[in-house]
Design a protein that fits this description.
There is one protein chain. By secondary structure, the chain is mainly α. It has 3 helices and 2 strands, in the order αββαα. A two-stranded antiparallel sheet has the order 1-2. Strand 1 and strand 2 form a beta hairpin. The longest helix is centred in the last third of the chain and has 37 residues. The radius of gyration is 31 Å and the shape is elongated.
Length: 110
Amino acid sequence: MATKAKKRKKSSKRSQSSGGARVKNTPKAAAKVDSSGIASTSAGTQNANIFSRAIQFLKEVRVEFDKITWPSRKETLALTVSVLGFTFFLTIYLGIVDISLSKLVRFLIY
C-alpha cells in the first residue's frame, strides 16, 4: 500500500515539474546525411504516416456514424413543430412585454 502511494507521489511530482501537462514521447524521423554532409529527414515516410493516420481517422469516423441512432421522420416532425410552436409563443409573449414596458416608460417620462 505504501509503495503505491510513493509511486503516485513521484508521478505527481513529475507532472508538476513539467507544468502539469503530460508529454507524449514520439519517435522522430531518422536524419539521413547526404553526400554534401547535410542531415535531412525522410519526408516520404512522414507524408505516408500523415495519410495513413488520416485514413485511420476517417475509418473510425465511419464506425462512430454507424453507432448513431437517428430519429424517425415522425419524431423529427414532432420535435420541429414543438420548437416552432414554443418560438412563436415566446415571440408573442416578449412582444407584449416590450410594448407594455415601452408604454409604461412613455407614461413616466411624459
